[in-house]
Design goal:
The chain is mostly helical. The protein is about 75% helix and about 0% strand. The chain contains four helices and no strands. It is rod-shaped, with a radius of gyration of 18 Å.
Length: about 80
Amino acid sequence: MGLGIMITGVIMVILAVDLSEGGIIFTVISQLFTGFGIGLAQPTTGAIALQQAKSGEEGEISTSLPNQSLERNRNPKKCC
């Protein structure tokens, strides 16, 4: 479902290029669709990867899944 919504958003962006009026508003709405689709698709992809993992390899799969909060903690922004 998430992938379908994401693809719909991308198609809407492509169509917005041809619009002479209201193209900006249509583009913003299409980006909302794309972001919502990505938000739905990412957790599903991780669950499918873990489901398809061989017995005993779940830990290796889970460590290779992207986790943005962990990346932020590893590379904190330095202030001043």
